[in-house]
Amino acid sequence: MKTIICAALAVCSLTSAMAQENENRDDNNKIVKGPYETNRFIDNWFIGFAGGVNLYEGNNDAYGSFGKRLAPAIDVNLGKWITPSIGFRLGYNGLEAKGWGVGQTPYSKDHYENGIYNEKFGIANFHGDFMWNLSNAIGGYKETRIWNFIPYAGAGVTRTYGNDDKIHEISYTVGLYNTFRLSNRVDLSFELRQVFANGRLDKMPQNKVGIEGMSSATLGLVFKLGKTNFKRVKPVVEVTDCSQYINQVRELEAQKKDLEVNNSALQAENTELKNRKPETVTVVEGGSVKATPVALFFALGKTTFDKKEKANLEFYVENAVKLDKNKKFTIIGCADSATGSKEVNQRISEQRMQFVYDLLVNKYNISKDRLEKRVDGDSNNRFEDPELNRCVILE
Question: Which CATH number fits domain 281-394: 3.30.1330.60, 3.30.70.1710, 3.40.720.10, 3.30.70.330?
Answer without folding.
Answer: 3.30.1330.60
